[in-house]
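Q: Could you fold this chain for me?
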Amino acid sequence: MALDSNEYPDKSINKFESMLKTDDVYFFDAEDFEEIIHHYLNLGKISLGKKAIQIGLEQHPNSLELKLLQVEVLTFEDKYAAAEKLLDEIQHIDAHNEEIFIQRANIYSKQDNHEKAVNLLLEALHLADNSFDIYSLLGMEYLFMDDYKHAKESFMKCVELDDNDYSSLYNVVYCFEFLEDYDGAIHYLNDYLERNPYCEVAWHQLGKMYYAVDMFQEALAAYDFAIISDDTFMGAYFEKGKVLEKLGRYNEAVENYETTISIEDPTSHAYLRIGKCHEKLGNTDLAKYYYYNTVHEDPLLDKGWLAITDFHYNQQNYKKALHYINKAINIDGENPLYWKKAAKTYIALENLDEADFAFKHTVDLGNYELDTWLGWAEVLKRLEDYNSSIQVLVQGLEFYPESSELHYKLAGVYFRNKETLAARENLVKAMHKDMEQLESFKEEFPEFKKFRWLQLLVSEVKKTTT
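A: Sure. Below is the predicted structure, expressed as structure tokens.
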């Protein structure tokens, strides 16, 4: 009885590798060569895949399937001209082979011409009997083009064709999320669950959508159904823990996080969440224990180092906070969040020169948040380096031109730097943007209270805004 290659998938591969080790030449069916080539390409063993294509075409020179696999390898190696030439030859023989259009689309996609790739895939769709893979490729091309509406529709087609295609299901939900259509995602997932009531993946995604729109009780119910469908689904327990945290049910949240640890090896993220819960419950020793476990489990997890630093900072143990944030900087000195936390800790320790240095690193590494500019300018103001403080605030306004806080602070610093005209100009801008912050400004710069012209300025601004 002949052996079925699908029943013994390794047989042809072992036979091929045996042939390569000897001078013998074995004959294979074209289908066997396809199996061998796919095996090597899937493993990333391109040279062996190319060898199999070469021998395969020697034995089966008219096999279009082997030639199409050769096109795939040529495209992978960026040999587009050779791939196109071979596709022209194949198309001359079989003009209605959808794989030709798929391979041409792949070439255009690799050259970032995604619109052309989409058009070719749409042509392939008209020729194909099985459209599943084409819809999947279309979805990815639309994602490359940031066309989330059409990407969503393509991945929906994949799910229609195969309810168990969870990769496409995830992509559908991703598109809904990007479009901020959470209601649409909830409706779609509920429809899907009508057909597949025990799909833990869909329940899990539904829980995340409910969480996104603050429907926490519904999210809890969705995660419970995910757990009923698969009681080893770690993600459902973890996400359920986050919802329980949000609801202030910290002990229950801890139970769910601990379940994730019992299902699989402990993760730094689970330790971190447990630590946060214990800190909220006032269990400082347990919080500290889990924070230490977090950074031990994953020394590169920035949230872990920030949590342990915040823990000591909140306990007003600033020296210990500084010790841990410096330890984090030694591990990853390119992380702007570490430098920003260091800056705040130096401020608490009244070490303003080091705070200035840390803020500079924070900005140099790409953190341009509003409170970064305000914090740095405040440090420089306290150091009485008014020119530098002005420079920082002006730079901050490039990112946040509508910020009244930056304008108020800039007005005050300009005044202290004896640049009265610039101070008045920025103060007017600030008041136009937010008059309510004027009292805070007076507290920060009390010298303004004694100037009668400030009251006149306020009156003028109020007239123009009413």
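A (continued): The radius of gyration is 32 Å.
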